[in-house]
Amino acid sequence: MLLGAAIPASGQAADGEVIAAAQRMEQKLGMRVGLSVIDTGRGTVVAYRETERFAMASTFKSLACAAALSGGDAVLEQTTRITKADLRPHSPVTEKRVGTSLSTRELCEITLRTSDNAAANAILKVLGGPAEVTSFLRGIGDTTTRLDRYEPEVNEATPGDPRDATTPQAMAQTLERLLVGAALAPADRDQLDAWMSANAVADGLLRSRLPKGWQIADRSGAGGHGTRGVIAVVRPPGAQPLVIAIYMDGKTHPLKTRDAAIAEIGATIFAGYAR
Fold it and tell me: Are 122 and 49 spatial neighbours (Cβ–Cβ below 8 Å)?
């Protein structure tokens, strides 16, 4: 589905190529792919399966940290003591910090850089639970996305389960509000952008095909039933940003295979924009 203002035929062709790339990956891998790409400069959206629900998996961590930022210093400077009981699978930083206390600000830096699951859970507990992230989202205009559970249950991604899910359209619109729009104060927006720009666990996705000189702030996620996703704000030099949400599920291929599929779709997006 293509939305937005009238655009040149060359732009329409490029957008059609993005949808075709998503469909090729569906056919090649036997999976379901959904995407939404907002061109904030051109005022257009290219989308495919954009209103279908997908599990967020770890992409929720950007939303949790946005909610923390919106709470100000009272939330960000609150400290959490890390215990052995708090650890979950994939807690590469917090497992080395057992017995110490970390501020919510530090926890956000950790989870958005490394996807540390114990750090993410600690943030959710400071906020008052997953439902508080949903409440934050409703307050900024997202009526679709919902967060219900902690790590690692959030990654179950059972087909048809509405919990812990979003749509590509809703996620892209929310990310635009957070990192391009005015949903956060400017300093908080810049902080979220910086945390996501330092992501160290998504090199095989969009970053692998990012043109030289472009900047990216992203967050990836993976879960059951082949779930893989990435959300990003991409900034070409001297141009307005692209906001991207890509999700896939349905068949459990190796992670590298799913990453390569998303990277290929990303390459098509970038090539079309650069024309």
Answer: no
Distances (CA, A) of 53 to 25, 167, 176, 223, 246: 18, 5, 19, 14, 12
Please, what is the end-to-end C-alpha distance for the chain in angstroms? 21
| pLDDT tens track for 106-148 | 999 999 999 999 999 999 999 999 999 999 999 999 999 999 9
Task: Name the CATH superfamily housing domain 10-273.
Answer: DD-peptidase/beta-lactamase superfamily (3.40.710.10)
For residue 23, which of 33, 15, 13 has the smallest C-alpha distance?
33
Catalytic residues: 58
Domain range annotation of the chain: 10-273
What is the pTM (predicted TM-score) of this model? 0.95
Q: How many CB atoms are closer than 10 A to CB 243?
A: 25
Task: From 75, 85, 84, select the one nearest 126 (Cα to Cα).
Answer: 75
Q: Is 79 helix (H, G, I), strand (E, B) or coil?
A: strand
